[in-house]
């Protein structure tokens, strides 16, 4: 899925596991499945972080790969 935001001069492409993305009134929101985040509690206790997480990536025009 490609996403165009009027505030960005380049498009965004989804990578990783499937997620739901929405954009409304200048707010970009993403919903991921269970255990698809990279959050690690500051206490050091908790679940192992996910090995992959949904994300949006974009390349500004004029940059090389």
In short:
By secondary structure, this protein is mainly β. It has no helices and five strands.
Give structural notes.
The chain is an all-beta fold. It has one domain (1-60). Helices cover 0% and strands 29% of the residues. The chain is built from no helices and five strands. It has strands at residues 2-3, 12-15, 20-24, 27-31, 55-57. The strands form two sheets. A three-stranded antiparallel beta sheet has the order 1-2-5, with no helix packed on it. The protein has a two-stranded antiparallel sheet with strand order 3-4.
Keywords:
65 residues, mainly beta, three-stranded antiparallel β-sheet, two-stranded antiparallel ribbon
Summarize the SSE layout with pairings.
Layout: E1 2-3, E2 12-15, E3 20-24, E4 27-31, E5 55-57
Antiparallel strand pairs: 1-2, 2-5, 3-4
| Total beta-strand segments | 5
The description of the largest β-sheet is: 3 strands, antiparallel
Report, as a whole number of angstroms, the end-to-end distance.
Answer: 20 Å
**Could you say which structural class the secondary elements and strand pairing correspond to?**
mainly beta
Proportion of helical residues: under 10%
């Amino acid at each position: 899925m490609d996403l165009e935001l009027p505030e960005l001069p380049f498009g965004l492409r989804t990578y990783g596991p499937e997620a739901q993305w929405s954009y409304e009134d200048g707010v970009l929101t993403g919903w991921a499945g269970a255990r698809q985040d990279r959050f690690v509690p500051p206490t050091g206790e908790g679940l192992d972080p996910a090995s992959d997480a949904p994300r949006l990536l974009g390349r500004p025009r004029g940059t090389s790969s």
